Amino acid sequence: xxxxxxxAGLAFxxxxxxxxxxxxxxxxxxxxxxxxxxVDGREIALTHRSVATLTxxxxxxxxxxxDVSPLRKAQVLNGASRFSFAFDTAGTxxxxxGQLVPNHRIRQALFRAIDGQPxxxxxxxxxxxxxxxxxxxxxxxxxxxxxxxxxxxxxxxxRFSAVREQLGIAAEVNRLGRSMMVCRVPHEGDHQxxxxxxxxHGQTIAMLPLAHRQSSAVLTLASGQIERLASLxxxxxxxEITRRYDARLGRMWVVExxxxxxxxxxxxxxxxxxxxxxxxxxxxxxxxxxxxxFNLGLQGAATLAELIKDAAVRGDDIASSLLLRRFExxxxxxxxxxxxxxxxxxxxxxxxxxxxxxARRATLRAGARLPMVRQTISRLLMQH
Length: 384
Ligand SMILES: Cc1cc2nc3c(=O)[nH]c(=O)nc-3n(C[C@H](O)[C@H](O)[C@H](O)COP(=O)(O)OP(=O)(O)OC[C@H]3O[C@@H](n4cnc5c(N)ncnc54)[C@H](O)[C@@H]3O)c2cc1C
Fold this sequence. Notes:
Bound molecules: flavin-adenine dinucleotide
CATH superfamily: FAD/NAD(P)-binding domain
Number of domains: 1
CATH architecture: 3-Layer(bba) Sandwich
Number of strands: 20
Number of helices: 11
Largest sheet: 8 strands, mixed
Structural class: alpha+beta
Mean pLDDT: 92
Radius of gyration: 21 Å
Shape: globular
Strand order of the largest sheet: 6-5-14-15-16-13-17-20
């Protein structure tokens, strides 16, 4: 049983195709919303590894060419300094660092990919109310009163996972008091396929390059300030974003959004319990600044699915504690350094005390001078 038909739950269900298992995927939202998810403003920067996984799952082929924008270069700016720390594909043989795809298109593509999958039952329009597991198996009670039993329960029900709580798995939860506002903005200038992350004093603003001289503007401020900006009409908001971005791409105006996301990061103490596992944001809820949440979610889903498929082929228990502990160890190794590194970065770049300002100037310049640092970051972005 998989709880949650977000991108992680859908990808996991799809990755189990061919294992010969009966799978129930339970999603609170109705099926028509899963088939045509509304725009949510998130542009997901996918690594090469994620693109390869989505291709294997049959989801990449469901995307239209206009859904995909190449990410050719990335630069980090600090305060008023004109100095930038840039990463590109030089010497890698690739022509792009990664691909940007809207989140709702990824969800739609994955939903199409699971259509007609043998052995998969989709239960939509009703959420999971209670879960319980013991050595013999797991049991789920749906909000409409139905009860389901299975050998394994997998929670993919978001960073505030209620299933995680009911399983008694503790999690580190950091509510940051800041929110992210996302909107789509056409502009006068050409972004040249370059993504910019600008840690300015008192605000963080990112511009993700989309087709047709458009960008996804991502502004992070204290939650109250974001609420105030989000209530502006689109003309005033466009002028505000142009001003806050120092008109680096000329005049901007808003054609989609704003969408507001209060920022909270989470990391579960364990990714597994008796006959249960956590995947996606339910396991690791990343800060969006390093664009790794879904990339990691996909990687974790693929890792767990592989272990389960191998066990199923051998006729072994698909929820043995050995298998689940192995999943936890592999996914912790993949996710903990990125999670911790992202926290360090966010701390360093949002601290306005003079010592922190000096430290970030020094870090940025030192990093830019060290080819190894640049290459490591580029490789992380481009993971195969
Ligand atoms: C602004 C922003 C930008 C981002 N950019 C990037 C990026 O560039 N790259 C990247 O890799 N990641 C990015 N992310 C992160 C990415 O969007 C998430 O990691 C990803 O959506 C998590 O997917 P998920 O399936 O785990 O959870 P979710 O998308 O939260 O889905 C959870 C699903 O579970 C369902 N559900 C919840 N409770 C129940 C229940 N009790 N019963 C049944 N169903 C239930 C919900 O309805 C939902 O459909 C970004 C996030 C934000 C906010």
